[in-house]
Amino acid sequence: MAVITGASSGIGAATARRLATEGFHVVAAARRADRLATLVEEIRAGGGQATAVSADVTSDAEVAALADAVTTLPGEVTLLVNNAGGALGMDPVESASVEDWRWMYEVNVAGTLRVTQSLLPALEASGAGTVVVLGSTAAQIVYEGGAGYTAAKHAQAALTETLRLELCGRPIRVIEIDPGMVRTDEFALNRFGGDEQRAAAVYAGVANPLVAEDIADCVAWCATRPHHVNVDRLVVRPLAQAAQHKVHRVQ
Question: Which residues form the catalytic set?
Answer without folding.
Answer: 149
